[in-house]
Structure formats: C-alpha cells, structure tokens
Amino acid sequence: MKDKIVEILKKDFVCDKCLGRNFGQLLTGMSNEERGNVLRHYIAMLIDSGEKIDVDNSNFYGINFHAKKMEAKKPKECSICFDIFKEIKKKVKPIVKKLEKYDYKTFLVGCKLTPELANKEQELWERIGIEWCESIKNEINREIGIEIERITGKKMDRKSPDIIVTFDFNTDKVELYVRSVYVYGKYQKLVRGIPQTKWKKKIFHTSVQEIIEKPFLRQTNAVRGSFHGSGREDINVRCLGWRPFVLEIVEPKIRKIKLNESMKEINKSKKVRVKDLKIVGKEIVKKIKFANYDKTYRAIVEFEDPIKVLKKVSELKDAIITQKTPIRVLRRRVDKIRKRKVKDIKYKFLSSKRAEFTIKAQSGLYIKELINGDEGRTQPSISDLIKNKVKKIDLDVIKIYCD
Ligand SMILES: [Zn+2]
C-alpha cells in the first residue's frame, strides 16, 4: 500500500481526488478527495520522520515539515485529471439547460472521456495495479450527477432513470435519452376499413394507433408513439372483443399522464374504444407481443350458390386445420405450413346464400382461409365441406381470451 502511494506521487503532481481514487474501495463514507488527503499526509509524516522517499516534491506543497526536510514547489495541474474536476460546474450548466425542457424525477449521467484522460489513467494502472481503485469516469459521472442534483433537486437513479444524460468531453456535446412511457390497455375496433397501426404511406385516413395515441402525444408533448398490439385484425375486420395493447410514448416532455381523460377522448371517436388503461414497464411489450390468445370470431359469409346443407361444418369442431401461408400474405411472410385447432364452431342460416359462423380458434388460425379454403391451401375448410365457393366474408373478432 505504501509503495503504491509512493509510486503514484513519484513522477508528477497528482491531486487528492486522483490519489484517493486509487484507494476508492477502502473505507466507506469518505470521498476520494479525503482519502487522498489522508494518504498524502501519511507519506509526508514518513518523510518528516526522516525516511528517505523518492517523490515529486510538488505533491507536498503547503505541508509544513520540520527542519526544512522538504522544499516543495507549487504544483501545476494534476497530471492524471488535468484539473477536470474544477470544470465540472461549468460543464453542468448546458446539461441543466437541456434538461429543463423535460419533466423528470430521476436521471443518470454517462460521460465520454478524451483519449488523454483515458490514457493517463491506463498508464497509472499499469504501474500500480487496480486492486482498490475506482475509475475516473465513474467519479466524473458521479460529480456531474451531484452537481445536477444540487441545481435541479432531481435524483440520480441507476436502475431506471427517467433520463440518461451523456456528456462528451471531446466535443462538450450533451445528449439526452428520455425513457419512454408505456401505457397498457385493451381496445375494441368498432368499424371496418382502418388498419391497426399507422402506415408510412398515408393510404388510410386514420388507424387504431392514431386514434389511441392522439391524446397521449398531446399531453406528453412526445415525439411519436409506437403501438404494440397483441396480434392484429385485418383492416376490414372489426375487433369487438377486447384486444390488449401497449402504447409506447417516445421521448415524452411531460411524464404525467391523464389516463381517464385520454380514455374518454378515445371512446368519443366511435371508431375505437379502450379500457383498463394503466402505466406499465417496458417488459410488458414483449409479453403482449408474444402472447398467444385463443379467439372467437363471428363471420357473416355470402356464398356463390344457394346453400344446401351446413351440417357438415360441425365436423370442424376439434379438427386440426393444416394451412399453408395464405396467398394474401405470401408476399410478406414465408411460405410454410401451420397447424391450428378449431375449438368450437356454430352456424346459422341467414338467407339462401348467407350464413353466420361463430368460431372459437386456437391462436394463429387463419380464419378467412378456414372459411374460403384459400384455393386448397387450407384443409379442411368450410367452403370444401359444403362444396360452395365463398363470395364475401364480414369478419369480427368477438372475444380474445386474454385473462
Ligand atoms: Zn487529479
């Protein structure tokens, strides 16, 4: 330990912070500056006691020795940190200014050092080892954090900060990474003809996403929303059952969300309704996306010819359906075979060419193809069983078994 301290003080001036930081893991409740001060005085006492120690004299400037044992010259800047810690107050000003635009309770700081700073530390570590040390980066991050805390009254948080601040000492550039706010809920889509998510090309006037995110984006003054549904219904399919979703609010300026107010506004749209809104963690997105919920559908089907008999359709109950990837999605999905179960099926005549089917299906079954057979790619199918071609399907999701 003594050798280590001497080695640090041997060549050049090293400030208390930089000296103490190399013993940062020894004792708690003490700053590195205090550690450095104690260690410097320890070596000074050894020298004062008459021990011959080879050190750079400027490290002992201002310490009073007996009988002029040492004449120290005034040190220049610290050879390890280049007195960077003295600049922290100045560096923090633009950070705080940038943070002012956001509403947050907690933050975390990360910095990028100049190569000189990083190299100096490396060189020292190669000489003395890293047994008890803390890195300069760590201490700079903490010092910047403490200064931000002092000015703003906000708190540093390692686990899940609202904002991560990065500061680059090469360019003095400040960047903020604002944690998204996640709103969970369940929605119904009451009309046909709107997609679930916003399209890049604006073909559709609106979408489930746009209707739901509108009040949230306004309240939070966020950059954009990102919509994660638990599965999706086709554009021309209504979803009368409640489908779970998570709306990610990206880069919110305000983090306080009025759930009830938003719900009322969304429900006024008449196109989409939501319920059970709550703020959740990011991990729920995955849970929602990979959930496999069974669903019940209602289909009003128009056939090309008059229906003779529907009874055969009940053979589909508990049947395993083999489906090649539907023609309508072949362009964007891999062509493969999928097997899913029909858990229940009921039917009802509506007129000579029209019938209603209520189908409970295992998650992932392509319902339109179960009905029309998809040119033989889905087997068995309603169309095949009753030997009648399908002209039109009006499909609704009426229940999603999500809890
Ligand atoms: Zn220093």
Overview in brief:
The protein is α+β, with helices and mostly antiparallel strands and 403 residues long.
Please provide the count of β strands. Answer: 14
What's the CATH first level of the largest domain? Alpha Beta
| Total separate domains | 4
**Which class of secondary structure composition applies to the elements?**
alpha+beta
Annotated CATH architecture of the largest domain: 2-Layer Sandwich
Helix % is 25-40%
Q: Ranges with pLDDT <50 over ≥5 residues?
A: none
Please state roughly what percent of the residues sit in beta strands, choosing from under 5%, 5-15%, 15-25%, 25-35%, 35-45% or over 45%. Answer: 25-35%
Q: Let me know the largest β-sheet.
A: 10 strands, mixed
Q: Write down the Rg.
A: 34 Å
CATH domain fold name of the largest domain: Alpha-Beta Plaits
Catalogue the ligands. zinc ion
Essential attributes:
elongated, VC0802-like, 4 domains, binds zinc ion, alpha+beta, Alpha-Beta Plaits, 10-stranded mixed beta sheet, 11 helices, 26% strand, 403 residues
